[in-house]
Amino acid sequence: MKKLELGEIVKGVEQTKLSYLYDSYSTSFEAKVLNAVHEQGKSWYVVLDQTLFHPKSGGQPTDVGELVIQGVKANVKKAMLVNGVVVHYVKLEKELKIEKGMSVRGTIDWGLRYKYMRRHTAAHLLDHCVNLVTHRINKTLGSWLGEPTYVEYQGIFEDVLLKQVEEKANAFISQGLEVKTEFLSKDALKEILDSPNAERLPEIQVYRIVQIDSFEKIPCGGTHVKNTKEIGALTLKKTEKVEGGFRIYFEV
Ligand SMILES: [Zn+2]
């Protein structure tokens, strides 16, 4: 189904409460079906009033998992964010006509999600350490937390510094630094607009801010671990030149 048609599915539907923003460690939830559109066979597009499924966005891959509707299991293949609404693309194990108002129990694949949480937090720590070692703010151009995992920055980077960045990051990881979350209005956010991703922020009313220890505050809608210790060992694999910048590939 094309983007345009996904737009049809979410037309007039209330924006989804993104429950993972408030608790990244919850794995299952109850919700109500706000809209359901049959694709073909046992495949459906399902919109819920709230969800723990993080859609593919901000460089973080989609969560997968399952929904149980009327006792029937539906495998969630992917979650997509369309105009503030999360659309779950599911495949039922048995025939069922999914209807508005039905109750749903959802469970995410925690192993996969936790991996993304560790990688995502590592990416923020990497931003901080790249700035420390290069003595300048390196704006981020993008990132991918699937495979291969990388963060992309503006400007140039000397490979000889890679080992220093890795050592700094691993030192912060082993210190067990707290990773905090808060919510800020757009005006309050303006005061911290020197964050590495400041120029890539969406136009929304309330921003979620993530901060490792007393480092820079980062507006981010992704999922993170609570303590840097959970990241485990960070390995910087290599750098690569890209248009207007460079990538650092990493593993945790
Ligand atoms: Zn983040």
TrEMBL record:
The keyword Phosphoprotein does not apply. Keywords: Metal-binding, Zinc. Residues 1-252 form the Alanyl-transfer RNA synthetases family profile domain. The keyword Zinc applies. GO terms for cellular component: cytoplasm. Its cofactor is Zn(2+). PANTHER family: ALANYL-TRNA EDITING PROTEIN, ALANYL-TRNA EDITING PROTEIN AARSD1. This is Alanyl-transfer RNA synthetases family profile domain-containing protein.
